[in-house]
Amino acid sequence: MANPLAWDDFRLVKAIADQRGLAPAAERLGINPSTAFRRLGQMEAALGTLLFERHRAGYAPTPAGEEMVRIAARMEDDVAAFSRKLDGQLLAPSGELRVTTADSLFNDLLAPIIARFCDRYPEVRVDVVLSNQPLNLSKRDADVALRATDGPPDTLVGRRLATIAWALYGRAEDGAEIPPGERRWVSLAQETGAAKVARYVAARADPARVALRLDTVVGLVKAVEAGIGIAPLACLSGDRHAGLMRLSPPEPDLSAGLWLLTHADLRHSARVRVFLDFVGTEIARLRDLIEGRVPFSGPR
Q: Which residue intervals of 205-269 are DSSP H helices?
């Protein structure tokens, strides 16, 4: 064949078969009947076979014509399916999405949000990596990071969703009457990257009163709940535990930014984009809680 067949050639053959004639097929396609006649002749000459048998009752496709009609029908179905996908009827982001965050942020904030995200986007498979040390998104250790930081890497893009407020907490059953200086304390170890918390405790507690040091915020909350000592906690963590009470207002020196980050090369990926938008919207609803303006009042 001198020239390859085009999509319009298949459309013409199908229209002739459906309408059983050149004139009605041309009208359906919005072309001149003479143009339809000429194009059909060119196709048959190029293929070296008839596509239609001409009868008094109309045009009947030959076996070659029937095959072109079947192909055209499949092509129409594919085009229609693609249009539906673009309209959002069938298209949903899909594939694996690797998310990293700290264990405390996952437990206190992200877990229920991911549950709702999975309900909305069931074709996205979320792989969560819990780490209190930043993963390298540039090396694709993760696609998205939810991090508490005041200085996100320049290599990443994203937005600051809120400011995480911290305050001093103790067990509610112990009350607030005993001065902090006379209590036992629990602290994060400075080598965990929580230097703010370690400095805060060191400035207020005699070293002999620091009963325990831990390397995770989750462990810090559990230690305060168990009555080991008082400790600074993120309001997001402390306010959601009924057995704990604030012993101080939010401490500005302990606050940290809450950032949702990805690599610049990934921000236009469908599954990354919908995750960023979804999580950003959900966290915006909880901003007063995260920033310590309202106490936690039940499951969210």
A: 217-225, 235-238
